[in-house]
Automatic annotation (TrEMBL):
Belongs to the ABC transporter superfamily. Gene3D superfamilies: P-loop containing nucleotide triphosphate hydrolases (3.40.50.300). It comes from Methylorubrum populi. Residues 15-249 form the ABC transporter domain. Keywords: Amino-acid transport, ATP-binding, Cell membrane, Membrane, Nucleotide-binding, Transport. It is found in: Cell membrane. This is Glutamate Aspartate transport ATP-binding protein GltL. One of its GO terms (molecular function) is ATP hydrolysis activity. GO terms for cellular component: plasma membrane. Signal peptide: none annotated.
Length: 255
């Protein structure tokens, strides 16, 4: 029997990551990672390439298995064998680097497929919700187009709307702007800023330090599979404690 997700206790973290370690074969890629994301909090995860940021994020909804530790999302233990992972993933919105839209479906059908199949919504209800979300991300005029007819920035905004169509309790973003041309980055970040202002709980892997300064409550800095710093954003940018974080910021903020 699978366990139904139980709401997180009031005041408790929406996401709790406790001593998580992961290996690919004999290669250790995460080492004792511990952090938490409170309800309504925006946490930016940053660090050099290959530091384990995306791997840790994908562990949150079990897209990547991990061998040690525990992750709890809104009261549900990710690594518990009794946990219904499809049900958990339905409540955790995920936005990927490369959009992952269905190319053969229209934009509106991309938004309505999962709510109809997974949540059991009627076609009319799913479509109404989808159109509302497209309006929210500024794409009402593109509902009947296919993804290939849209720019990269527009496709990523569709991907965000698709994730929101499942009414998630938390949103995970895995480098959502890294595959975009520079002029398209702003339109995606604007949508994410509005989500944060509306109180969405968000965990964001990104190199966009301007976004982190503007929106993040906390910054988690990773290097070589470890969480090196986990501090308020002002502390991270103004007074980074570790030499590795200081070096990272000196390079990334110099451009």
């Amino acid at each position: 029997m699978t366990s139904a997700p139980q709401p997180a206790e009031a005041g408790g973290p929406m996401i709790a990551i406790e001593a998580v370690s992961k290996w690919y074969g004999e290669v250790r890629v995460l080492t004792g990672c511990t952090t938490a994301v409170a309800r309504g909090e925006v946490v930016v995860v940053c660090g050099p390439s290959g530091s384990g940021k995306s791997t840790l994020l994908k562990c949150v909804n079990a897209l990547e298995p991990f061998q040690e530790g525990q992750i709890t999302v809104d009261g549900t233990r990710v690594r518990d064998r009794a946990t219904n992972l499809p049900r958990l993933r339905a409540r955790v919105g995920m936005v990927f680097q490369h959009f992952e839209l269905f190319p053969h479906l229209s934009v509106i059908d991309n938004l309505t497929l999962a709510p109809r199949k997974v949540l059991g919504r009627s076609k009319a209800a799913a479509r109404a919700r989808g159109l509302d979300l497209l309006a929210r991300v500024g794409l009402s005029a593109h509902a009947e187009k296919h993804p290939g007819q849209l720019s990269g920035g527009q496709q990523q905004r569709v991907a965000i709307a698709r994730a929101l169509a499942m009414d998630p309790v938390v949103m995970l973003f895995d480098e959502p702007t890294s595959a975009l041309d520079p002029e398209m980055v702003g339109e995606v970040l604007d949508v994410m800023v509005e989500l944060a202002r509306d109180g969405m709980t968000m965990m964001v892997v990104t190199h966009e330090m301007g976004f982190a300064r503007k929106v993040a409550d906390r910054v988690v800095f990773m290097d070589r599979g470890e969480i090196v710093e986990d501090v308020a954003k002002d502390t991270f940018f103004d007074r980074p404690r570790s030499e590795r974080a200081q070096q990272f910021l000196s390079k990334i903020l110099a451009h």
